[in-house]
Task: structure prediction
Amino acid sequence: MRSKKEKLVSHLPDVAGNGLVDRRALLGRGMVFAGAAAAGVGSSLTGAAAEPLAVDPWSMEPGAPIPPYGVPAKYESKVVRTLTNPKSEPRTSQARTPHHLLDGTITPSGLHYEPSHSGVPDIDPEQHRLLIHGLVRQPLVFSLEDLSRYPRVSRIAFIECAGNSGALYTAQAQPLNVQAIHGLLSCSDWTGVKLSALLDEAGIDPRAKWVLAEGADASGMSRSFPLAKALDDAMVCLYQNGEQVRPSNGYPLRLLLPGFEGNMNVKWLRRLKLVDAPIMTKDETSKYTILLKEDKAWQFVFPIEVKSIITRPSPGLTLKGPGFYEISGLAWSGNGRIRQVEVSADGGQSFAPAVLQEPVLPKALTRFRAAWQWSGGPAVLQSRATDETGMVQPSRAQFVAERGLRGNFHYNAIASWRIDQAGEATNVFA
Result:
């Protein structure tokens, strides 16, 4: 005769190797709670039902006054970005988003990843101007007041540095976590003016085919991009997650090219020049090309390819013994919506479909979730995303066979976390 625990766990059918459970377990609350309780996860709920709930000290005294600008709880002090330049030396620096400590799909503005080539400029918004010139009928200069009078639009979109996950361009896996490997990625609700509206007012010369975007920082950061993108979904953004764009994210004005690699979304935007060909700036020649094998390279590969990562479980988040767990992560594609994410617990030998958390938006982060009954034995967790164009995230072997390991940019192969018997996760190549 089977025990009560065995009967409860049997309600969670395996759909792939090493304990991956049917995704319906995440859609029917009864099944999840039954399995969790059987594995001991629900012991605190049982205790709460058996005896009166204690009245804690914070329920017996007045709380702190409401501040004029809210900040996270003091207990969340470790939910911060990591810095590549903690001494603030005059050089290129980055701040990486702690995705393993977040949930949902929107990145808080204060945790949005940030690259800087020459520090964050202190720009007076009253003096800042945006120039549109080049192959236009009438050059225009806009103040922020001018831009505020145009109709505004909002969209949720991810921005990913082309060098995100570049730490996986190595022959041996390094002992790094989600933040160190994949932290140059964030997603926000952006509000601003469609670039096509501004270009329409300036009047586009038929010879124009490309646009040069230039920032107001000391590095003169600039990139060329196709005019077709400017007339499609490009935006000049003034707001991020409901408040004005923060200084390190481009205040008072930044360019948004949804789905295109990160530094093309030029921050501190000051100039847009319409031209008939790419300008060949330093950041589109010496950098941001995709190196291949045999001394070849791809240039002007702008959209971010389909990609996904598991954020939980992951290094630094130790599993507390065998039982039911949710595998959760993020998927995205610069080519549109995510159509499917599959999860494996046996290093890619078998996969099962995960639940995609609504809304699933184009060129935005999508949260996926999968049910897992961990036996307490070794496991290798992977996720594999497919976008609406049919592009499938490649295995590491497929990726290396095509591109080799000479590059720094656009790494989108399947990533792997090994779980040991102690519940610790490590970065591995599988």
